[in-house]
Amino acid sequence: MTALLDTPVAAPPPTTPAKRSLGALWVLPPLALVLLVVLYPLVRVFWESSAEGSWGEVLGSQIFRDALWRTVAIAATSTLGCLVLGTFLAIVLAFIPFPGSAVVGRLIDTVLALPSFLITLAFTFLYGSAGAVNAALSAITGSSSPLLDFLYTPAGVITAEITFFTPFVVRPLLAAFSLIPRAQLDVAASLGGSPWLVLRTVIMPEAWPALAAGGSLVLLLTLNEFGIVLFTGAKGVITLPVLIYTRGIVTFDLPGAAVIATVQVTLSLALYCLYRLVFARLAARKEGHHAVVEPTK
């Protein structure tokens, strides 16, 4: 036994340059696929947008400025609504058990798998001019005109987007809440902390990275959302994706559509870079907080 322990273990053979270069060749097929699927369409869009006079014509038009403002306003409002509603639902599901909470969690997971236009169709059947809610209100009041007429306005688009994208906030928060030790919450409660104080000082500081990740994802998705706006049929709600569709498909103005698409891509990339910066700072602050707490233990 001692002889076996004293026997030196042979070091693994060094990797030769030929094997290293052969292994690097496996990177080429996925890299070529990414270049073909992602980079080539972007280059074509940028090239189409370089037509003479396209940028000045599009950026100087009032419809583009209105669509840009409406896109940002709808995306920001929908994201704020998703953050508020998603945080509330995640806290209830994680810390306030009730009969049927598991079923509610499964329903939230189901919404993640559905296409966005199904939510719009459901809203049409419920809140449309001939929907179930207006039919019930008309039967009660005797009015022939629809009493609830918000679906074809920006408020209807925002409500549909909040309904569809809230699970993208709930899921990361539930994952973050599951990592909080139960003993930490019990100690905070035993020291006399109210539920609101425990939520503000113990739970939410651990959930900020997940909340930032979910909110950033929702902001990017709502900024580029097309199906909900199109299937809602709101004629006055023209966003950048709808304007790209109108210019490129309806009027066949490909240079103009490419300019708007370039603006859309630039805006999305800017938001992504901002998200990465904010997330890195939150992660660094959290690591610094843990580094300060550990020596005191």
Specify the overall morphology: globular
Overall mean pLDDT: 78
Helix content class: over 70%
The tally of structural domains comes to: 1
Number of helices: 15
CATH class: Mainly Alpha
CATH superfamily: MetI-like
Assigned CATH architecture: Orthogonal Bundle
Task: State the oligomer.
Answer: single chain
Topology (elements, then pairings):
Elements: H1 2-6, H2 17-24, H3 28-48, H4 54-59, H5 62-95, H6 101-113, H7 116-127, H8 132-141, H9 154-165, H10 167-178, H11 182-190, H12 195-223, H13 227-232, H14 240-250, H15 254-296
Summarize the structure.
The protein is built from 15 helices and no strands. With 297 residues, it is an all-alpha fold.
Structural write-up:
The N terminus is likely disordered. The protein is mostly helical. The protein starts with a helix and ends with a helix. Helix content is 78%, strand content 0%. The chain has a single domain, classed as MetI-like (MetI-like fold). The chain is built from 15 helices and no strands.
Write a concise keyword list for the protein shown above.
mainly alpha, MetI-like fold, disordered N terminus, 297 residues, 78% helix
